[in-house]
Amino acid sequence: MKINSLISSPSEWLHSGEGNNKIVVSSRVRIARNLNRFPFPGWARKNERIRILSITLPEVSSLGEMKPLAIVDSMDRFSPLEKQVLVEEHLISREHAAKNVGSGLAVNSSRSVSIMINEEDHLRIQTFKSGLQLKAAWKLAEKIDDELDEKLEFAFSTKLGYLTACPTNVGTGLRVSAMMHLPALVLSEQISQIVKAVNRIGLAVRGLFGEGTEALGNLFQISNQMTLGESEEEILERLHKVITQIIQHEENARQKLLQEKPKFILDQVSRAFGILQNSYIITSKETLNLLSVVRLGIDLGMFPENYRMIIDECLIKIQPAHLQMAYERKLSSEERDQLRADFLREKFKNFPSPDTRHLQFPYHH
User: One MF term from GO for this chain (predicted)?
Assistant: First the structure.
């Protein structure tokens, strides 16, 4: 399997550069499509799912946007560990990881496109971009959708739009989301107000791995909930507006903390840095939360900007399946906690100490 070579380089959406990537880590677009005259995956018999896979996989693999292809295979060809790596990379859902014969996956080598076959719908087209680039992610997804539309006959109703397995996706079949890093809103205990406000206007706030997961590392996914009765442009526009407002709230919270509690921020960042640099046993949950605080330190100018890539790489590499893949064997959780600490000490050994000269301390001598 090509998963080792796939994860040896960082994925495109972690490359700093485009978009306001201090607060918005990445943008994702997902389109749900189904073939006409075939039952949805949940209702399809095994031989029908195999037939759907045999029709869609060659068409998906031949797309220009999928070149060069890194992965194209049936889900039963992946080991449980490889599936878990794909979940940690955000390339497949946890539901898709449970699939076997009759489900498939295609991923391009930059990991900007991942297409799940026979997850909840026949096709789940996912595109990823770094920072706040919702429109660019949508353009890429739309191009793939148009190309596939010419080759495959999609289930479509003139009254409702695209037909999907779950009623919330009917219409455009479009789910747009941004992964946001919101440590100051968490530290200043404003996050629950923001989440409530976002929920009230019909958007969803989820954790690091989507539905039903915790917001580890102060990372939150903000996405639209409904797809019926709104055009793709309206969905994108509305989400972009809300995300821009959340960025503003996070920036204000950072300024307020710096002005009112500079010692608190310095303490949080320095402790996090000290533990990452010196621990010998550490869990993935603790690591994600500490990395988040050091990333905030980079945003606030306490570390040089070029160290951001190390933090973003660590966010992925310290996760359980990635560690086991790196050491090429199954590890107990105790072994993982020790090897994770070894990995982090190595990564942080040349990290400079936090630079606090620009912070204003009222009683600092």
Answer: protein arginine kinase activity
CB 156 within 8 A of CB 163: yes
Average pLDDT of the segment spanning 236-265? 95
The domain total for the chain is 2
Q: In this structure, are strands 104-108 and 69-74 parallel, antiparallel, or unpaired?
A: antiparallel
What phi-psi label fits residue 127: left (phi over 0), alpha (psi between -120 and 50 degrees) or beta? beta
Give the max Cα distance, the chain.
75
d(CA 38, CA 247): 43
What residues are designated binding site for ATP? Answer: 26-30, 90, 124, 175-179, 206-211
What is the C-alpha separation between 13 and 26, in angstroms, rounded? 6
Q: In the structure encoding, which two tokens stand for residue 363, read together?
A: 């009683």
Burial class (CB within 10 angstroms; exposed 0-12, middle 13-18, buried 19+) of 289: middle
Residue holding tokens 């076959």?
Answer: 117
Residues in the annotated binding site? 26-30, 90, 124, 175-179, 206-211
Q: Domain holding 13: CATH number? A: 3.30.590.10
* Statement to judge: residues 304 and 158 lie in one domain: no
Contact 309/285 with Cβ under 8 angstroms?
no
Q: Using the predicted structure, report yes or no on whether residue 189 has a pLDDT greater than 70.
A: yes
**Residue 164: what residue type?**
T
The predicted model scores a pTM of 0.90
Asked if residue 96 and residue 35 are part of one domain, the reply reads yes
Range of the domain at 221: 3-253
